[in-house]
Structure formats: C-alpha cells, structure tokens
Design the sequence.
C-alpha cells in the first residue's frame, strides 16, 4: 500500500501536483483554506515551459475546454505606446483563475483525491507533507510595501492580446480573456500601508489622466465580484535547497509578475515533484532524499530565471533604468526575445 501525501494549499501548484499523483495511484489529500470557484490576484496568462508541463500532465486540453484564449502579441506603454505591438516569441494561454482553479479542483476530485476546501491545515510540516500555500507574508524590504490588485472588465479595447502599462508606482497588465472580458491586474509599491484598497482600487489601476491606460478603462464595465487584492508580497528570490519544508509554487518563491511566469513555475514545480514523491510513496526513497531531489530540480530550473526577473523588476522601478531597458528592447528584436526566454 503506497504512503499517502498531504498537500497544504489548493492553488495551481497544489492541485496540479495532486492530480499528477492521483494519476499514478497515490493517495492524496489537499487542504485549502479558500473555496472554489474563486477569483485570485493573477495575470491570468500562461507562457513558456508551463504550457509544456500542462501538455505532459494531460491538462492542457482541459484548460482549453474550460474557457481560454491564445495570446499572440504584446505591447508596452508608459503614458503613451513605447513601441508597436510585437509578436510573442511563443504564444501564451489566457484563462481566468475563476475557471482554472475550478477545473483543477473538479479534476482532482474526479480522480479520487480528497479535497478539504474552506478548511485550514492545523498540523505541522514534516514527512509526506508538501507546502503549496502560495506567497508568504514577509517583512517590508527596502522601505517599500508591495501589493497587488485585480479586476475583470468589459468594454475595454486592447491594441494587443497582452498590454503592460508602466505607472508612477508600479505596472498594470491587461490581458484579453474569452467572452470579451479583460483582466486588469497591477503590482504597486508604497512607502506606507495603503488602507481601503477595496474603495480606492480604481485610482491605482487607472493610471494618469493623460495616459493610454486611463483612456483604455474610462468606459469599462467592471465586474466588482471579481475584484481582489493581496499585500505582504515578497519578490526576493529563494533557493529551494535552503527551505526546511518541501515546497512548490509560490510556497517556494515568487517571481516578479512583470515576467508573466508565476503560473508556469507553479505547474513546472508540481510536475518536477511527482516522480520523487512517487518513489517516496512506494518506499523507494526516504523523505530527506525526496525533499532534496525536488529542491535540486526546482533550483536547477528556476535560479537563473529568478535572477533575471529580479534585475528586470529592479530596473522597472527606476525611471532612468526602465526607459533604457525598454528602448533597448524596442530597437532590438533579439533583446526582446532574449529577455522573454531568460525569464521562462
């Protein structure tokens, strides 16, 4: 009888890992404090290696059937366009987290997984326990507090499938979803705590009055039920090998949202954890060996990606450096493709 695995956190990484293990016949329990379906602060598009992970895991067709759209182009803006829309080096998949999380939760249960939603894990982390709980609140770094906002809207016309708008305090991404919906998601920084985000989100997400972003959403019809926010974000890269717990996805580390690679890393880390956990469950490896193998694989896959993403994130919050970086990318298709590939 194989040993059971407990996954704490039923987000993208946790549910994907649970599905992969159930397909191998391993008993799995997932604990998730929230309920499904739900909206999450998320750019809502998948690119790079994450799509290949989904295909290998047999989930890509399910995502497409759940309601998704292929993104082919991207464009960057300050107050005005910085350069024309460009083809993405590889197509991305746009899908709402509301649909995505619900599909994964249903698929996990369909495969016989034991899902405890609306229930917080009360145990400790140790043998056979995997942390997939998403981001961890961290102390304020360098005097800045990072927070994210997200809302869906209609009556928003985009010039590209993906738009990135740089504003004074951060950046806002617009992503074309199925059914004429657009996901509007931003990361911002503030020197002080920002109260009442549920009331002031429009000011943060709208940009300056003279900006393209402001005109984009001036007549938008917002889905207020989709609004959500998150604070206490840490984007300091972390190595898996230094973690005391077996961690995947955002529970391991977060990549700056500007790269659009957070969801891909969740799927990739889940996929890399399946075979080591399978060996442990069948008594072929110790828990220490299993945790080390998962950590080694994650570090090999993500370390360079996280370093490049951290450099880009730092540049984007510096007015001079951001203009130089964007101008170089605008004039050099090679640089555009290189930055895209290095963060994926």
Sequence:
């Amino acid at each position: 009888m194989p040993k059971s695995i407990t996954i704490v956190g039923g987000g993208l990484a946790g549910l994907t890992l649970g599905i992969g293990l159930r397909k191998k016949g391993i008993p799995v329990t997932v604990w998730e404090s929230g309920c499904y379906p739900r909206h999450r602060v998320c750019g809502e598009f998948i690119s790079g290696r994450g799509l290949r992970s989904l295909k290998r895991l047999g989930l890509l067709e399910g995502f497409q059937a759940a309601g998704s759209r292929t993104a082919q182009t991207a464009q960057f803006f300050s107050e005005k366009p910085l350069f024309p829309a460009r083809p993405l080096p590889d197509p991305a998949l746009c899908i709402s987290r509301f649909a995505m999380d619900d599909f994964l939760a249903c698929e996990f249960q369909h495969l016989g997984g034991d899902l405890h939603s609306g229930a917080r894990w009360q145990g400790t982390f140790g043998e056979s326990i995997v942390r997939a709980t998403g981001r961890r609140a961290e102390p304020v770094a360098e005097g800045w507090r990072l927070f994210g906002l997200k809302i869906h809207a209609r009556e928003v016309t985009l010039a590209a499938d993906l738009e990135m708008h740089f504003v004074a305090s951060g950046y806002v991404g617009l992503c074309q979803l199925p059914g004429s919906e657009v996901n509007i998601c931003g990361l911002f920084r503030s020197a002080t705590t920002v109260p009442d985000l549920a009331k002031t989100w429009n000011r943060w997400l709208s940009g300056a009055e003279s900006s393209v972003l402001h005109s984009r959403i001036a007549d938008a019809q917002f889905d207020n039920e989709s609004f959500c926010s998150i604070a206490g974000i840490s984007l300091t890269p972390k190595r898996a090998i230094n973690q005391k717990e077996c961690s995947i996805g955002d529970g391991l580390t977060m990549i700056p949202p500007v790269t659009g690679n957070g969801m891909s890393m969740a799927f990739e880390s889940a996929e890399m954890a399946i075979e080591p956990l399978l060996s442990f469950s069948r008594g072929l490896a110790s828990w220490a060996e299993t945790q080390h193998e998962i950590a080694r694989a994650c570090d090999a896959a993500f370390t360079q990606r996280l370093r490049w993403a951290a450099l880009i994130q730092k540049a984007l919050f510096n007015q001079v450096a951001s203009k130089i970086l964007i101008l170089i990318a605008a004039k050099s298709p090679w640089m555009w493709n290189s930055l895209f590939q290095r963060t994926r």
Remarks:
- The CA atoms of residues 249 and 266 lie 4 Å apart.
- The two ends are 38 Å apart (CA to CA).
- DSSP finds ten helices and 13 strands in the chain.
- The mean pLDDT is 90.
